From TrEMBL:
InterPro entries xrefs: ABC3_permease_C, MacB_PCD, Macrolide_Exporter_MacB
Name of the featured protein: Antibiotic ABC transporter permease
Source species, domain of life: Bacteria
Species in which this protein is naturally found: Flavilitoribacter nigricans (strain ATCC 23147 / DSM 23189 / NBRC 102662 / NCIMB 1420 / SS-2) (Lewinella nigricans)
Segments crossing the lipid bilayer: 21-42, 303-326, 347-377, 397-421, 442-461, 681-700, 733-752, 767-790
PROSITE patterns reported for this sequence: PROKAR_LIPOPROTEIN
Length: 804
């Protein structure tokens, strides 16, 4: 019996090659997309769960609100004092580790080889609290000595071509703490596995926190710039523990608050280590939070999974719709089987078996497609995931559910309907149709609604990205390279040498030196007005190098450190009618004095941050000791020669530093890497969705025209034209597509409008976007349907009637 059912199923699939191909290929593509998306989604939620004590590991968070109760900032940072103080006074805290790094890179030398490496300064017990297995050395004692250094496996291989590196010597020539040690060599005490890709804590080398404190020992409770991780007692009450933290802060920081020029409301929190990766809201400090990198948001992985589920749903709709429509052609076959003795139960089993065979083949093909597409997917999504990560009972259960659902939906309905037909009605051509399929029509509408939403999203994404690339940023980033003076050095002599050499080289236009830490926000005072402004240290060459328009006043004069240049947003925020000559007091953390400074110039508002944010008030000041950053304007006619010349000059002036540079245009583009990636993902998804819709429509229209073969023949005999028949046969499908567009338009508008809200500067959602996406959908649907309609309309009516 089973063999007979299998032979019948295979014979049926082979006889209807077109429908078989559409069903298998469509469902396989849908399942493959879903597999890749689930892999991505699970990887995003796997971050930092590999540590042995994951459930007990937390990071201290700091919430800071200014005295007016506005501009709240939540950061994953804390200072140097919180960890030791909480460990001593709060019994629930079993241990702590301070971590400074994430975006800190420094030059490490072995003999003549210098590498610029990602550094973490950590407490001695770092390798005991966190699970980074040691390949060489003792993790319990590896960071005990001030001159200890721990290497990752890849760093050891880069330096020594082996992981057997314990006992080797390295040098930190430019580090201020190394100077305090008399440039004593750093001793390699351990080699550990590279941090896994799903670790928020990444590093090339580990250095003792006490080594950092030789040059930077900070007792200020008001600072928040490093990560403090706590190992809590498993029975600890988090809320009660945080209350104790805040009481300790109130006691310890009272004196410092009195001396400070601002009075912030600071409170602490505890964040599970596994929540760090997907909680970008804990940003705002301007740094990667306490040694962590690669923060994301759950919305991205949820969106990816949602898009993949859309595509899978489209494929599933095709599978069910075509199976149901195709099964209605088999009414005579079923009737003959019933006359020859087949039971209703046997017919149901036959239809379910055919659907199960199709599903099984589709799932196998989906796995093959997912494996083939995985390398390209990892590149597109900027991931390092493997399908092997899915091999577990949950994965098997998911595939089983897909298999059973698709089999039952596509096989059970036609099996029950057809097995209930009366053979006499079928064989004597009495109507046996269960009615015009409302389910099938609804599924077609749903398909094209989803495809239309993705098409609109693609057009809006592309439009916003083009807007970003074309928008005038208020300065000229082209042919400006960005680098820095490696290490903590005396900047002045190096700057003077570079300045002189650049002036003598015709391949360079100008060079500027400024703060190496980007743009940081703090409170300023203008008369009685408080203005929160971004502080930027730079020299008098910064404006011409960057091509920033000076609207009022003048540039800096030589090294007068009492001069300030502000932007137009600052003037508006401070309510200054005559800004030139006005006194302004910058935040003391950024300058060497607390006396008022004088505004000498006003520049146009330029976008020093991404277009996600509006231009904020900006104060540019001179501070020679804070000029590790380099901006070099090169001549576009000799780009390659200029790059080579400056690299040679840099290595001549700073021979013990590694040289790396980036074009400012590339740095700006990096701000939108995520959006560019999602534009590509949604574009690919829209193409796949439309392809699957067309495959389904192609199959349905084929079955539709086959069922109306006799009607078409009669109409042709009565004088119907080919064009008229094509209109007649395609009209029903095009009406469904138009209904889908009308229903989907409000949903598409709502989704793209919400996404655009993330940008302070954005495109308008134009009506033509919906018209273009709609016309494209209608055109593709018409071309798909017209293939079968045209073929049926051109067929010989004699053959159509005789076949019937």
């Amino acid at each position: 019996m089973f063999t007979n059912y299998l032979k019948t199923a295979l014979r049926h699939l082979a006889h209807h090659k077109l429908n078989t191909f559409i069903n298998i290929s469509g469902l396989a593509m849908g399942v493959a997309c879903l597999l890749l998306a689930v892999t991505y989604w699970l990887d995003e939620r796997s971050f930092d769960n590999f540590h042995e004590n994951t459930d007990q590991l937390y990071r201290i968070t700091t919430k800071l609100v200014d005295r007016e109760g506005s501009d709240p900032k939540m950061t994953g940072g804390s200072g140097q004092v919180q960890g030791p103080a909480f460990r001593e006074a709060v019994p629930e805290v079993q241990d702590y580790v301070r971590v400074l790094g994430g975006d800190i890179y420094g030059d490490v030398r072995h003999e003549r080889e210098v590498l610029n490496l990602q550094m973490l300064f950590v407490d001695d017990n770092f390798l005991e609290m966190f699970t980074f297995p040691a390949l060489q050395g003792n993790p319990a004692t590896a960071l005990d000595e001030l001159n200890s250094i721990v290497l990752s496996e890849s760093t050891a291989m880069r330096f020594f071509n082996t992981t057997d590196a314990v006992g080797k010597l390295l040098h930190l020539d430019a580090d201020p703490s190394a100077r305090r040690l008399g440039h004593k060599p750093m001793l390699v005490t351990a080699v550990v596995d590279d941090p896994p890709a799903n670790s928020s804590i990444q590093f090339d080398v580990l250095l003792p926190f006490r080594f950092l404190q030789l040059s930077f020992d900070d007792k200020n409770w008001l600072n928040a710039y490093l990560g403090t991780f706590l190992l809590l007692d498993e029975r600890a009450d988090r809320a009660a523990t945080v209350e104790k933290f805040n009481r300790i802060y109130a006691q310890q920081a009272a004196g410092q608050l009195e001396e400070a020029s601002f009075d912030p409301d600071i409170s602490y929190g505890l964040q599970p280590i596994t929540d760090m990766h997907l909680n970008m809201l804990l940003g705002g400090s301007g740094w990667h939070e306490g040694g962590t990198v690669g923060e994301s948001r759950p919305v991205y992985s949820n969106l990816f999974l949602g898009i993949a589920f859309f595509i899978f749903l489209l494929a599933g709709i095709n599978f069910v719709n075509i199976n149901i429509a195709g099964s209605l052609r088999r009414a005579r076959e079923v009737s003959i089987r019933k006359i020859t003795g087949s039971s209703r139960r046997g017919l149901v089993i036959q239809f379910l078996g055919e659907a199960a065979l199709l599903c099984g083949i589709s799932l196998i093909l989906a796995l093959i497609l997912a494996i083939i597409a995985l390398p390209a997917f990892n590149t597109l999504a900027d991931k390092q995931v493997a399908l092997a990560d899915l091999i577990n009972w949950k994965f098997g259960l998911g595939l089983a559910l897909i298999f059973l659902t698709a089999t039952l939906l596509s096989g059970l309905y036609p099996a029950i309907v057809l097995s209930g037909f009366q053979p006499g009605d079928v064989l004597y051509n009495r109507s046996v149709s269960p009615g015009r399929s409302r389910l099938g029509r609804a599924l077609v509408v749903l398909q094209f609604s989803l495809a239309f939403i993705l098409a609109v999203g693609t057009l809006v994404f592309r439009g916003q990205m083009e807007f970003i690339h074309q928008k005038d940023l208020g300065y000229e980033p082209a042919y400006v390279i960005r680098t820095h003076i490696g290490g903590n050095r005396e900047y002045a002599p190096i700057q003077q040498l570079l300045q002189n050499e650049v002036a003598r080289n015709d391949n360079f236009e100008a060079i500027s030196f400024g703060g190496d830490f980007g743009y940081e926000s703090a409170e300023t005072t203008v008369g009685d007005q408080k203005v929160r402004a971004v502080h930027k240290s730079a020299d008098r060459h910064f404006l011409p190098v960057m091509g920033i328009d000076l609207r009022l006043g003048q540039n800096f004069t030589a090294e007068n450190q009492r001069e300030v240049i502000v932007n137009e947003a600052f003037v508006r925020a401070a309510g200054l009618e005559e800004p030139i000559g006005a006194s302004v007091r910058l935040h003391p953390d950024f300058t060497d004095w607390e006396e008022p400074m004088q505004i000498v110039g006003v520049v146009a508002d330029y976008h020093y941050e991404s277009l996600h944010k509006p231009v904020q008030p900006l104060a540019i000041y001179q501070l020679p000791r804070n000029r590790g950053g380099i901006w070099l304007k090169i001549k576009k006619e000799n780009t390659q020669a200029a790059l080579q010349d400056f690299e040679a000059l840099y290595q001549k002036v700073i021979p013990d530093a590694s040289y790396e540079y980036q074009f400012l245009t590339d740095l700006n583009a990096r701000e939108y890497d995520r959006e560019q990636r999602w534009q590509r993902i949604i574009s690919i998804a829209a193409v796949l969705a439309l392809l699957i819709c067309c495959l389904g429509l192609f199959g349905i229209s084929h079955l539709h025209t086959v069922r109306r073969t006799r009607e078409i023949g009669i109409r042709k005999v009565l004088g119907a034209t080919t064009a008229g028949l094509v209109r007649l046969l395609s009209r029903d499908f095009l009406v469904l597509v138009v209904i889908a567009l009308v229903l989907a338009s409000p949903v598409a508008y709502y989704l793209v409008r919400n996404w655009l809200q993330e940008y302070a500067y954005r495109i308008d959602i134009r009506w033509w976007i919906f018209v273009l996406a709609g016309l494209a959908s209608i055109a593709v649907a018409f071309l798909t349907v017209s293939i079968h309609c045209l073929r049926a309309a051109r067929a010989n009516p004699v053959e159509s009637l005789s076949n019937d």
